[in-house]
Design brief:
mainly alpha
């Protein structure tokens, strides 16, 4: 929470959901610097950070009813911020890929050593995440995704109910997706700012 924030943020967000522009202005005034500094640290660009902050507040206003209904509305504000930052990096990655295709031709791009290395790294990241699953989730994930068995086939093989299979598979997929998103965001950051 921003320093010296003397308002009840949950109350203000509920007011914003009711189209209260004054409450929105209070939230803007109290969060804009924090959002800007976070975006600037990630992008190293004042202009891009300003654009991201503007996009965050546009999304907050558009999604104001959804933000107000969130269990942790303030956390939702930061989720919007991080989603905007990652959207920026994804856009940059798409633009870079397009530039490579134009510069080198699509066939050369697809067959390049860099593409092969990235693909290997992605496979390694996926395997690493699968190996971090709890044993039961790992087995169920591998049977479903790598051996293409149905829930009923997995349930019969492991002597558990199809609902248990569904629950374990769902938890495994959520875990892998969440961590691969973080891995990809980190790779994009490294590609653009370190590499």
């Amino acid at each position: 929470m921003p320093k010296e924030f003397s308002y009840d943020i949950v109350f203000l967000i509920k007011q914003v959901a009711e189209d209260d522009e004054k409450a929105f202005r209070i939230i803007f005034d109290n969060y804009k610097e924090l959002f800007y500094s976070t975006a600037y640290k990630m992008t190293h660009s004042a202009t891009i950070a300003e654009d991201i902050v503007q996009e965050v507040f546009v999304r907050i206003w558009i999604k104001r009813k959804l933000v107000a209904s969130a269990k942790k509305p303030e956390g939702y504000l930061f989720t919007i911020l991080h989603n905007c930052i990652y959207s920026h990096f994804r856009k940059m990655a798409r633009e870079r890929q397009l530039q490579l295709k134009v510069s080198y031709g699509e066939d050369m791009m697809e067959n390049s050593i860099e593409s092969e290395l990235i693909e290997k790294e992605n496979r390694a990241n996926l395997e690493n995440r699968i190996n971090q699953l709890p044993p039961q989730q790992k087995i169920i994930y591998q049977l479903a995704k790598q051996e293409n068995l149905s829930r009923d086939e997995i349930a019969a093989q492991l002597k558990i109910s199809p609902n248990t299979v569904r629950n374990h598979l769902s938890a495994a997929v959520e875990y892998i997706k969440a961590h691969l998103k973080k891995d990809i965001a980190g790779m994009i950051w490294v590609l653009f700012w370190v590499g």
